[in-house]
Amino acid sequence: MTPLVSVILPTYNREKYITKAIESVFGQSYKNLELIIVNDASTDTTGELISSFAKHNPKITILHNEINLGIVTSLNKGVKVAQGKYIARLDDDDVWCDDKKIEKQVEFLEKNPEYCLVGGGVIKIDKNGKEIVRYLLPKEDEYIRKAILINNVFAHTAVLFRKDTFQKVGGYDEQFAFIEDWDLWLKMGKISKFYNFQEFFVFYLDQEHDDPYHYRNYKIRRNVKVNMALRRKYRSNYPHYRKAILFCWASYFYSFVPFRKELGPIIFQIRALFFGSPPYKYVDRNENKTT
């Protein structure tokens, strides 16, 4: 008998994208799943759209927040009512691009009980659906652990994890809003193992791709304290703490650098010199080569 998978999809004002996200869930080859949508007090037609889907599909459960509670609270609410053995995540503006994603991940976790979390590759797209870049993440547990304190080496919307492990470690922590997934992985890794498929699982919509640099810079600077706190919290559990702290500060100062696109190759070389090659393997979609 195939175990139930619960897909958690929090949403806020995504009337333009939510339909494709839902359709990608039920386009999966794996059919024993439920979809839990947490509507975080949307003010557009998102509520009406998801209610329409739920009327015709008993596998959909909708939780409505009376006020906007934010992503972390919404995620924890969704997982709390989930009935599945496994939890999958999908954002309201993303789409799973592999219809066997869940099937492959469930098969892996069923065969490997010592693992709690599996992920996969990402294809970033812009608001027009044009591909920006595609990349894979470290595959084996050994290499994931070497990199995970420096970089978040799992894409939130590409993962599948065990609900019982999630409960053991206390779920998502609101202290780490904006990087709540990264904190969850680090907690889970203290008691279990990691794996990333070397396949592409999700079209990730980069909403900020065309935004001015000053907005991205603001996010980097806003998050520097919480990023530092995350590294300190797990300094005894994962290697390369000093590198992780240095990388955090380097990212902060990098946010002040002008002409980043023009300086990209130089900055990449400097990063490789101090921190080694990035854990992301960028793939040329035409030649199917990694860089």
Automatic annotation (TrEMBL):
One Pfam family cited in the UniProt record for this chain: Glycos_transf_2
Higher taxonomy: Bacteria, Candidatus Staskawicziibacteriota
Domain Glycosyltransferase 2-like stretches: 6-168
Superkingdom of source: Bacteria
PANTHER family, per the entry: GLYCOSYLTRANSFERASE, GLYCOSYLTRANSFERASE 2-LIKE DOMAIN-CONTAINING PROTEIN
Protein name from the UniProt record: Glycosyltransferase 2-like domain-containing protein
